Amino acid sequence: MRAPPLERRFGAYGGRYVPETLVPALDELEREWLAARADPSFTEELASLLRDYAGRPTPLYRARRLAERTGGELYLKREDLLHTGSHKLNNALGQALLARRMDKPRVIAETGAGQHGVAAATACALLGLECIVYMGGEDIRRQRPNVQRMELLGAEVRPVEAGARTLKEAVSAAIRDWVTNVESTHYIIGSAVGPAPYPALVRDLQRTLGDEARAQVLEAAGRLPDRVVACVGGGSNAIGTFIPFAGDSDVELIGVEAAGHGLHTTRHSAPLTTGGHGVLHGALSAVLQDEEGQILEAHSVSAGLDYPGAGPEHAHLRDTGRVRYVAVSDEEALAAFHTVSELEGIVPALEPAHAIAWVLANPAPGVCVLTLSGRGDKDLAEVLGR
Amino acid sequence: MTVAAAGVERIASAFASHGKRAALMPYLMGGFPSMDGSLAAGRAAADAGADLVELGVPFSDPLADGPVIHEAGTRALAAGATLHGVLRTCEELSAHLPVVLMVYANVVMAAGEDAFALRAAAAGAAGLIVPDLPHDEAGGLRAACDSEGLALVPLAAPTSTDQRVMEIGADARGFVYAVSLTGTTGERAELPPALADTVARVRASTAAPVAVGFGISTGAQARRVADVADGVIVGTRVVRAAGEGGPDAVGELVGELAQALS
């Protein structure tokens, strides 16, 4: 089988809009990933860790009570059951192994909800790598349990107090650290964003969940689904979910962004649904910006979706029409958070609660696969405190 | 009315006739501490012996900048700075010395590469520095700048491979901006040990002058950089002076740096 390409561009989107200092490191990362993913000793070690340490494959669960509201058959891909509580570990384990392969003893990461920070801290603890996590001050406040977990795992959490003190500024701070320490440091970016090769690298590492889901739904339902739904912030769980189904032209793919206070306001996180194209954090993609190209602050009740950009492959999939992007408000997501908890005994993270809210609002017959990208323990204080 | 010399020619002549050990290029953030304040600081720098000036267009997410310039840009935007306002400052300053705009890629793209080059040239800019537009991504903007007589000044870094440095130098316009260190802008106590090597690699790649920036703040550092390079860029220290003491402090600082290079 021919290896799939490691794209620098997805249509017009992507690229490497970073200081020259980082370009050689991006070249090295691209070379190393191409070599690693073709190297059985690497892929077998990753597969074995994903199975024995992380708990893959995760189940595809048929949610019968929720389906009474959504119509048809609803299958939840249970990434909430993965070690550390979200899909983020798929990427963090792969990239931490890659850091070790590149002899980079120091790892940096950014985090919004804290799920990627916890996953990176976990993978670094496992592999004996130093780990520094940048996190906005506002996110530290609303995701306290994850800060404590990262510290317990031996990571250093560095607060970022610039701007709105959320994910965008945490990514910027991580990139500035990387520019300074590039020779000793690997940056484990947490979503399918950033300069090439990151969007393709993160997609490669996350598609394991979509590959599993496709095989599992064929087994459980006896056919391909009619629609596949995932939430999109930067878009790593969504791209991992969608890509294995991209060639199945009868399967409708739906990415759910955060509409925050509403798309008619400026307080949302829905660049694919509403935004223009621009450069943020090294890639040309859909971004929220003003007419002069200043990046706007995003808003979402969900820290993991609170980001004014989205991965470049999503922007391309939107333009080609292969994926439909929609948005769900804070209020709808919060209601769905309660509904899933009460009907299924599953407390979802606020991020996939957006995807669930969309299927609740758009019931349809047929088979639906929805990626439940993480669990909601981290969100309890935020939700119950409202 | 005479047509102003093309930007590339103004830059070449500034590097050819500064009468110092190296050309002195302070950096100022447009709109910081205010629109009038950055213009006054630019005039003070010109009067005190600057040969060119680098004028920053504030951006919300300046990845190449350290905390001082980041904060200056944030404050400029909060005070209402716009591209239009910075270009008016550019126009006024260009009567005194060549102005090179330092602008992030998204601000250029939001306007469109051709439209941005046209507006910058109309405002008297001599060149552009786009710190997040590496060589591989710069072809379109370079062509747009060429057709307006603007120099698209490339950056080379200590981490750039020899092959990349050769490609960067071959396509340089105006001068090559050699980044002295691996890191963001900001004052440093010491110059990096590999500086001479970095500059030598860049010089071997290009016929254009080589100017060095990042981490240079004192007269003594500027003088040592001038031993190996054709130009010295001082950013954070000048922005700090503009914030702390306004145009007088900028003039005094630039005067000291010019003296150190005499």
Describe the model.
The complex is a heterodimer of chains A (386) and B (262). Chain A has 15 helices and 14 strands. Chain A has 386 residues and is α/β, with parallel strands linked by helices. The longest helix of chain A has 24 residues, at 198-221. Chain B has a single domain, classed as Aldolase class I (TIM Barrel). Chain B is 47% helix and 13% strand. Chain B has a 9-stranded parallel β-sheet, with helices on both faces. In chain B, helix 7 (139-146) links the parallel strand 4 (127-129) and strand 5 (151-153). In chain B, helix 2 (35-47) runs parallel beside helix 11 (236-260), helix 5 crosses helix 6 and helix 6 (113-122) packs parallel to helix 7. The termini of chain B are far apart. The mean pLDDT of chain B is 96. The interface between A and B is large, with 35 and 40 residues.
As a whole number of angstroms, the C-alpha radius of gyration of chain A is: 19 Å
Helix proportion of chain A: 40-55%
Do you know the CATH architecture of the largest domain in chain A? 3-Layer(aba) Sandwich
Task: State the fourth-level CATH superfamily of chain B.
Answer: Aldolase class I
Cα distance spanning the termini of chain B: 35 Å
Strand arrangement within the widest β-sheet of chain B reads: 5-4-3-2-1-9-8-7-6
Task: Report the mean per-residue pLDDT of chain B as an integer.
Answer: 96
Q: What is the tally of beta strands of chain A?
A: 14
The main sheet of chain A orders its strands as 3-4-14-9-10-13
Output the CATH topology of the largest domain in chain A. Answer: Rossmann fold
So what's the overall shape of chain B?
Answer: globular
